[in-house]
């Protein structure tokens, strides 16, 4: 057979047209072990069907990803799905034309949608007052306490008894520092999320008026009440003694803990993957509470992030997004996400299946973030925080906390300034 005949025969075997898969872009902010989870979920979804190809793209930290999404929308180049951290919820809700509610995405695609399958506390946070679910709760988390058991033993502390109250944390931090078991006793990620927003919910005190913004957008902050002042002054005192070490505004402090510099860390339950990978002899405790707060602990509020669907996309893209969200809701997928990352399972079936498998018995502490969130019915103080410009208010708080930790002002001054500046920023954002 001549070369020409061989080529002709080969060409004849190639299909005249190949049906291209619909590309679905997913911008996210996951790093380390959690980035590996994102890539595996995307790969498994792509392998599970032949119509769509999900393309995850890392866009930086949570704030950077939100800002990138806003810029892309303004330029007419928004992704199909964007992961937005919890504090960006108010920003996204206010941008009605920019997003398509996930409930509509699912029902328009003919997908069976029953929001009762999701954990109630998580669904409520990402829904409108009328109950319409706006975004898909991909990686919900709760702040918990991690501790280095080896450091505890060296410091003469019980490695099987994590501190339960903040006073116990302060005492343990000082013992760790004084004993030389570690250079510092305590560090924390996310001072705003853990020490103001969840501090308010867990101790059942007000963060702001109008049910912390869930009952109305005109909010005045209440974070300079005595309970907050006492708490932050204790942190400032520890910092001055060297028993507390500040890492940064988001999750940077996790590396201080992983390096062995500090013996105690408060951090998202979603930070678990990197701690497990480190091989540290670690323990988990519930988020500490203020022993002077009546009725504490109450309940924590969801952190982490959810997946928002951008508006103005084709019907085919929305069908693909709906297919992906249905895939994400499958019990085995949620079990994998929860058990691998430390984030909460967002469906009740995944939680029940994990519990029935004996996973929590074999992994003490892993149920803690779920029990914290579901242990008590939320009050007006503990449903969460929703401001039209919460990322900006957090930046203001962080600026004041950093001045406090540098010894430039007291906790009272820091919180008074945060309230005054934060209230002004909220009024400006509302056009008042």
UniProtKB/TrEMBL annotation:
The lineage of its organism: Bacteria, Pseudomonadati, Pseudomonadota, Alphaproteobacteria, Rhodobacterales. Gene3D superfamilies: Periplasmic binding protein-like II. It is found in: Periplasm. Residues 1-20 form the signal peptide. This is sn-glycerol-3-phosphate-binding periplasmic protein UgpB. Keywords: Signal, Transport. The complex is composed of two ATP-binding proteins (UgpC), two transmembrane proteins (UgpA and UgpE) and a solute-binding protein (UgpB). It holds the Pfam family SBP_bac_8. InterPro entries: Bact_solute-bd_prot1, SBP. The keyword Nucleotide-binding does not apply. Its main location: periplasm. Belongs to the bacterial solute-binding protein 1 family. GO terms for cellular component: periplasmic space. NCBIfam families: PRK10974.1 (NF008211). Part of the ABC transporter complex UgpBAEC involved in sn-glycerol-3-phosphate (G3P) import. Binds G3P.
